[in-house]
Design brief:
Length: 349
């Protein structure tokens, strides 16, 4: 089921009359059967967007479509959505089986049918052998899978996940996100996955939407967005270690840094720009500029070098083999890997 947002807006007004535009004129289409990551810093409007799609918040403006149905004013329980939050919110006094079965209570189906559905969902999320335990007897990752089974048991049209992995430790997060991806593929259910973790969003999403102050910055497949960020905000938000950014000049098609050191070429008008270079886009090359190394970190396969170039602090992520034991490291920027952004708007050139 395709989800289409048209000019979706939410304005909160506090007691003093001060307005917050939590979501501002958001128009995006989530393709049917895809998993779309909704990404951005804390307070950028991710949950508010999700809650409007779920029907828990009334939009201040704009429309929400599920396929051809305008659901903007439809009650939450009539939308056919499954919701999973950060805190699994399972009922502690009920068994896992009863928890998953709970949404079926008011439906007109037999106990036998209900049990069959519960067991089907439990198998799907890999907790078939945990059905008679209480939630407190499960690990965090298992509890979150129970929450997903509960969200899916009514066969919703849309699955909405709001930071479902935040309470898990690093390893469980990794495992559970792979599980979510598998479950989403197997069921083919259109899914929106909210997170503030760019790595998590990049690894799980078919495509991602980045928000800042309630405004859409870019929607693209993760790798496309990483290589071709539309603005400085997106460029900085994706990537760890983050992209190097600094002020630079373009003179006769040459990109220069500091007092005129040429680091590459660009076909843009002469002027001053923000320059972005990802740490992995430097390469060791004897014809390159000499690096004034301020620190080295060996991270297995990679080596991170902190260095200064004309007083600008930069980071390069290099293949450990190419720098091991080297004294005077010389670097170049790989061809085509310089990003230039407008100094006023921050938009890519
Ligand atoms: N019920 C509310 N009343 C007033 N303001 C709200 C309400 N809910 C959210 N806001 C404000 O709207 C903005 C967006 O909040 P939202 O919860 O959507 O952010 P978020 O992207 O989910 O952040 P986080 O990553 O911290 O969960 C914030 O400025 C927040 O303070
Ligand atoms: Mg939130």
């Amino acid at each position: 089921m395709e989800i289409r947002l048209e000019g979706l807006t939410k304005i909160f007004t506090d007691k003093t009359g001060k307005e917050t535009r939590a979501v501002d004129d958001l128009s995006i289409t989530i393709p049917s059967g895809k998993l779309v990551g909704l990404l951005g810093p804390s307070g950028c409007g991710k949950s508010t967007t999700l809650f409007m799609i779920a029907g828990l918040h009334k939009p201040s403006g704009g429309k929400i479509f599920f396929g051809d149905d305008d659901v903007t004013r439809l009650a939450p329980e009539k939308r056919g959505i499954g919701l999973v939050f950060q805190n699994y919110a399972l009922y502690p006094h009920m068994t896992v089986r009863q928890n998953i079965m709970f949404p079926l209570e008011n439906l007109n189906i037999s106990q036998k049918q209900a049990n069959k559905l519960v067991e089907e969902m439990a198998s799907l999320v890999g907790i078939r052998d945990q059905l008679d335990k209480k939630p407190s007897q499960l690990s965090g990752g298992q509890q979150q899978r129970v929450a997903i089974a509960r969200a899916l048991v009514k066969k919703p049209r849309v699955l909405l996940l709001d930071e479902p992995l935040s309470n898990l430790d690093a390893r469980l997060r990794l495992q559970t996100r792979e599980e979510i991806k598998r479950i989403q593929r197997e069921t083919g259910i259109t899914t929106i996955f909210v997170t503030h973790d760019q790595e998590e969003a990049m690894s799980i999403s078919d495509s991602m939407v980045v928000l800042n102050f309630g405004v859409e910055q870019q929607m693209d497949a993760p790798q496309v967005m990483y290589t071709n960020p539309k603005n400085l905000f997106v460029a900085k938000f994706l990537g760890n270690p983050p992209i190097n950014t600094f002020e630079g000049k373009v003179v006769n098609g040459k990109v220069t840094i500091g007092d005129g050191l040429v680091i590459g070429e660009a076909k843009v008008a002469d002027g001053t720009y923000y320059v972005g270079v990802r740490p992995e886009d430097f390469r060791v090359d004897s014809a390159g500029f000499e690096v004034d190394t301020k620190g080295i970190e060996h991270i297995g396969r990679d080596t991170m070098i902190r260095f200064e170039l004309n007083k600008i602090q930069l980071r390069a992520m290099l293949d450990s083999d190419t720098v091991y034991g080297q004294k005077n490291i010389k670097l170049v920027v790989k061809p085509g890997k310089i990003h230039l952004f407008d100094k006023v708007t921050g938009n890519v050139l």
